[in-house]
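User: Predict structure, ligand N-(5'-phosphopyridoxyl)-D-alanine.
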Amino acid sequence: MSRIAYVNGQFMSHDFAAIHIEDRATQFGDGVYEVFAAVKGKLIDSELHFDRLDRSLRALEMEMSLSRATLKLILREVVRLNRVTEGLCYLQVSRGAAPRNHTFPNKPSYSLIVTARRSQPATGKIGIEGVHVITTADQRWQRRDIKSVSLLPNVLAKQKAAVAGAFEAWLIHNNGIITEGSHSNAWIVGDSGTVITHHESIDILSGVTRNRVLQVARSDGVKVIERAFTVAEAKQAHEAFLTSTSSFVVPVTHIDDTVIGDGRPGPVTKRLRGLYLRTIS
Ligand code: PDD
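Assistant: Predicted complex:
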């Protein structure tokens, strides 16, 4: 079955779907995106993703003419046309094609692309067995709360992790603080099962999965603290894990060469993973 993509008003073969060579996403990284998870063919937490999309668009002074209801219809149609029951749906809005000039075009013709593909994080091996992460310097700009397509530092960090045989790179900010991963949020479990993740700020992306996990943890009576933590603290933690739309909740068993806990997914992580999977199924 051939894949179908949506590009600026048209559903077309994924193989031939393309945007203009002077699209500002390609020349300036001048665009924002969202990744939605689909479970049983339905988009998970779409309102939270659209709320974040609105925040990203506003932060970059971009005004989309399409309503949320229309965007939802397009996303659902791309998911349906690609027969994705479990998978991911990608949406990107850029400031569109315009003669190359750093300043914004006077009347931008925003470009919108949507793709979908299958993936199965709920049953995949990494969620059950856990992963290794490396640490590396956080070289990103100062507005990491905006889900911008300018992802070069994230790409370089993830590549470094891949070369080292690790799943993710945890990014280290000033004073040894871990902000988050290259494409996921970072968590540790401290004494008495206290779950710790970086507080919301311009230093991290406010993950939709992060916020859902915070919610399920609190309603299950798990003690949660939103605060910064250092690499040293993470390496001494009882457990560690990461969260994202593309991988849900994944245990972290090694940080660099340090074994976390007994090197296997810990009880708090497993519990939160189970609770999270229950909320989306
Ligand atoms: N990544 N932090 C960063 C830098 C991210 O890119 C992501 C998401 C997250 C987790 O956010 P959420 O739970 O809303 O997916 C945190 C997506 C999945 C991606 O780029 O593929």
